[in-house]
Amino acid sequence: MGFRFIDHTADIAVEVSGKTLEELFIESAKAWRQSVVNENVNLQCEMQDLKLNNEMPEALLVNFLNELNYLLFSKKWLMNSVNSINIYKNNSQWNLEAKINGEAFSHFKHSYKEEIKAVTFHQMNIKEIDGVYTTRIIFDI
Amino acid sequence: MEIKGIRLNKISDQLWEIPATGKMNVPGRIYISEKMILSQLENDEALKQVVNVACLPGIQKFSLAMPDIHWGYGFPIGGVAATDLEDGVISPGGVGYDINCGVRLAATSLNFEEVRDKISKLVENLFKNIPTGVGSSGAIKKVSEKEMKNILSEGSNWAIENGFGTDEDILFTEENGKLKDANPDAVRERAIERGLDQVGTLGSGNHFLEVDIVDNIYDEKVAAVFGLFKNQVVIQIHTGSRGLGYQVCDDYLNILLKAENKYGFNLPDKQLACAPIKSTEGRDYLGAMQSSANFAWNNRQVIMSLAKKCFLQTFGINERDLNFKLVYDVCHNIAKIEEHEIDGKVKQVCVHRKGATRAFPSGSKFIPEKYKEVGQPVLIPGDMGRYSFVAVGTYKALEETFGSSCHGAGRVQSRHRAIKNARGRDIIKELTRQGITVQAKAIKTIAEEMPEAYKDVSDVVNVMHDAGISRKVARLKPIGVIKG
User: Fold this and answer.
1) Which H helix or E strand runs over B392?
2) Rounded mean pLDDT, A16-45
3) Cβ of B360 under 8 Å from any chain A Cβ?
4) Pairwise CA distance, residues B183 & B291, whole Å
5) Which chain A residues are closer than 8 Å to B195 by Cβ?
6) pLDDT 10s digits, B418-459
7) What is the ipTM, given to two decimal places?
8) For a disulfide at B158, which of B151, B199, B314, B340, Cβ 3.0-4.6 Å?
């Protein structure tokens, strides 16, 4: 389970897999981080809570990754890792509750790799086959 | 011809049609040469996207694509579609994330020979004064939220009022640098926050500022009207609405995805999320998108003013001798309410141009007085090693493409492949040997953006020229480039 980058003419494409929806989201967050900054994860961290909901799991994943993108490019706060994450369906809504670790982005410590304009819905399709969740994600850069 | 199961009927050497089948409301039409079809369209899903766009409610005449067509999100890049204002839809997928990404061309009175020795110094100064690169910020002081609202409603006028340019610049900007129906209140807080420190910044990716010389003139009369002459030093600025526009697109994709069920659309692609233009959701997106377009015009205006200062300082000349003038500023990613003749009647439509340039002809009341005799400049940048083109709009464009033409070269190699191919080479040195000084924030960007990573833009421009949609006027050759 994990992620691998695949060739894309103009942007960044990644294929992600996980044994649970939660793992799929965690691996997606790792792929996002590896796309935007050069440095490895630091241990020094602050924690933030995230609560999101959407009618479709794909839209929830897009919302989740765009939230990380917003935190970095607007709030200058870089996610390092996902501490805990819980995804559940309530009536027609998919809900996400997560605690994420991160730190203030600093030019002394970090350097940007790419500016992701946004995480797209393009070719995103979360599938579960034999207990493995997969999807492709494309970052518009 | 059939490509990936999609039938293409030849209309002429430059035009191919996909007949309307299934859920398509109109046929698809692609301006492209046979050679380009085989090299460009066999390896991606752009044709399928032309078909998908043809399914949009209220689409008029054709789902169009320009010769720089390639795979985009929702619409193909190079896609043009007009939807009925009364019962049609508006889609962020027809505009893109970088709302009003566009190009401006400014000219000087300088001849290349006069300043040849100072170009590298000029590039150094430009690089120092215009922030480039990922998350670039701080070109000018961070604007307040109140000022931001003013930028969103007033566009380039904000720059002029704050000393970044002249009233004449406004006259030579598409829409005079301001869409008057912009609604800053429809721009959500997050988008505003993302743009506060990005006024006057280039950004990363394919955005650039380029110093060029006019190296070839195809139409002396039109070139003279545009104020262009051989060996003249000019600059091109290519950027858009930065993080603010990206956030607006993302915010409204979410809102419009939810509207899809409400309005009973069954769209083939989530990135085509849309709403009736006259619905609350549609009107809000339109107002926020127009505000972002205003931000982008203001951004290019501020950058141009910063660049002009660099010219004056580096060359040590006065304003009169420099004679720095905006030739024109065009949008490449936008949706605009325009009037077009459809089946013999003039109708108001929403023209989505996603990677396409407006190309209005002579006589149009929407172009600067000075260009009324010849038509509007169409600015088509190429790659940083070869050339860019200035063309002029025609009546045929108005008749066939809702007054639209192509916008650029498009990538031929992925970024990853370009980096691989650049390994062991010094691209900056290679360009220097060709007489092009380059400065960039990241070496990686230079590799990703090297000339061979792009198609030859002349192939694209020639299709539009031969089809009579936009005619070639001049070719520009780069001599200095700054990038992210």
Assistant:
1) strand B388-393
2) 91
3) no
4) 6
5) none
6) 999 999 999 999 999 999 999 998 888 999 999 999 999 999
7) 0.89
8) B151
One-letter amino acid of B439: Q
Mean pLDDT of chain A: 93
pLDDT tens profile B207-261:
999 999 999 999 999 999 999 999 999 999 999 999 999 999 999 999 998 888 8
- Tell me the C-alpha distance between B214 and A60, whole Å: 50
Neighbouring-strand partners of residue B39: none
Q: Average pLDDT for residues B151-174, to the nearest whole number?
A: 97
pLDDT of B165 higher than 70: yes
- Give the integer Cα–Cα distance in Å for B14 and B257: 36
User: Which of B194, B204, B254 is the closest to A59 by Cβ?
Assistant: B254
A 91-130 residues inside an 8 A Cβ radius of B: 112-115, 117-118, 120-122, 124
Mean pLDDT within B107-118:
96
CB contact under 8 A, B246 and A118: yes
DSSP string, chain A: -EEEEE--SSSEEEEEEESSHHHHHHHHHHHHHHHHBSSPPPS--EEEEEEEEESSHHHHHHHHHHHHHHHHHTT-EEEEEEEEEEEEEETTEEEEEEEEEEEE--TTT--BS----EE--TT---EEETTEEEEEEEEE-
CA distance B373 to chain A (A): 39
Report yes or no: A90 at the B interface, CB cutoff 8 Å.
no
Q: With an 8 Å Cβ cutoff, is B242 touching chain A?
A: no
Is the per-residue pLDDT at A16 higher than 70? yes
Beta bridge partners of B348: B339
A4–chain B Cβ distance below 8 A for any pair: no
The DSSP string of B11-24 is: EETTEEEE---TT-
B193 vs A contacts (CB less than 8 Å): 74
The pLDDT of A129-137, averaged and rounded, is: 96
pTM: 0.95
C-beta separation of B40 from B54 below 8 A? no
Q: Note the pLDDT of residue B211.
A: 98
**Across residues A134-138, what is the average pLDDT?**
96
Residues of chain A with C-beta less than 8 angstroms from the C-beta of B243: 73-74
Alpha-carbon distance of A19 to B248, in angstroms, equals 34
Residue with tokens 């070869």: B386
Q: Do B417 and A117 touch (CB under 8 A)?
A: no
Measure CA A116 to chain center.
Answer: 12
**Residue with tokens 């169409």, as numbered in its chain:** B378
Q: Provide CB contacts within 8 A for B411, sequence distance 6+.
A: A9, A10, B70, B453, B454, B455
The answer on pLDDT for B358 being more than 90 is: yes
Q: Best of B39, B192, B249, B270 to disrupt the A interface by mutation (most A CBs within 10 Å)?
A: B270
